[in-house]
C-alpha cells in the first residue's frame, strides 16, 4: 500500500465505491447511486476527483463548472480517514484546478462544524442561508470564495 494518497479523475467504475463512502459519511441523507452516476457521466462541466490510498478509495470531490463559476456539490472522506488533513488536501487540489477570477460556491449543513471550519480556513465566506435545504429540514450555509 502507498504511504501517500493520490488524487485522480473519477470514472463511472468509481460509482459503487463513492456510494459506499456516501452512505458511511452521510448516514441520514446519502445520495442515491443514480445521482452519483449522473455526476460522473461524461460531461465537460462536471468533474469528480477521487482520493485513493493504494487500491482503496478514501474520498471524493464532485464539482460542476460554468462560465466564471464553480460549484462544489459534494465532498467526503471515509470516516476512518477523517481528521488526518485529507479533506484539506482534496479541497486544495480542487481549488488549484480552478481558473483565477472564478467564484466557487458550496452548501454545507449548518451543524457540520468540521466542514465549515475546513471551508473557512480555505478562505470561503458565508453568503446566504437556505432554510430547510436538506431532507431532514436542516438549513444549509451557502459559502463562496473568489479565486484570485
TrEMBL record:
Q: Which Pfam families match?
A: Acetyltransf_1
Q: CDD domains, from UniProt? A: NAT_SF (cd04301)
* Chief localization: cytoplasm
Explain the purpose of this protein.
Acetylates the N-terminal alanine of ribosomal protein bS18.
Report the EC number(s), separated by commas if there are several: 2.3.1.266
The record's annotation in Gene3D superfamilies points to: 3.40.630.30
Q: What are the GO MF terms of this UniProt record?
A: protein-N-terminal-alanine acetyltransferase activity
Regarding protein family, the annotation reads:
Belongs to the acetyltransferase family. RimI subfamily.
List the InterPro entries.
Answer: AcTrfase_RimI/Ard1, Acyl_CoA_acyltransferase, GNAT_dom
Gene Ontology, cellular component aspect: cytoplasm
Keyword flag Cytoplasm? yes
* Subcellular location per the Swiss-Prot or TrEMBL entry: Cytoplasm
Q: What class of enzyme is it?
A: transferase
Q: Where is the N-acetyltransferase domain?
A: 5-148
According to UniProt, the name of this protein is [Ribosomal protein bS18]-alanine N-acetyltransferase
User: Does Flavoprotein count among this protein's keywords?
Assistant: no
Q: Which UniProt keywords apply?
A: Cytoplasm
Amino acid at each position: 500500500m502507498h504511504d501517500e494518497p493520490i488524487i485522480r479523475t473519477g470514472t463511472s467504475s468509481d460509482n459503487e465505491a463513492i456510494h459506499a463512502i456516501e452512505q458511511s459519511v452521510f448516514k441520514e441523507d446519502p445520495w442515491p447511486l443514480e445521482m452519483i452516476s449522473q455526476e460522473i457521466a461524461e460531461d465537460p462541466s462536471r468533474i469528480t476527483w477521487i482520493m485513493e490510498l493504494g487500491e482503496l478509495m478514501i474520498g471524493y470531490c464532485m464539482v460542476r463548472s460554468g462560465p466564471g463559476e464553480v460549484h462544489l456539490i459534494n465532498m467526503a472522506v471515509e470516516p476512518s480517514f477523517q481528521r488526518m488533513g485529507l479533506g484539506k488536501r482534496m479541497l486544495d487540489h480542487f481549488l488549484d484546478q480552478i481558473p483565477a477570477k472564478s467564484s466557487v460556491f458550496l452548501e454545507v449543513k449548518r451543524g457540520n462544524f468540521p466542514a465549515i471550519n475546513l471551508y473557512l480556513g480555505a478562505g470561503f465566506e458565508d453568503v446566504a442561508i437556505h432554510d430547510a435545504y436538506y431532507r431532514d429540514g436542516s438549513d444549509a450555509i451557502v459559502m463562496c470564495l473568489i479565486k484570485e
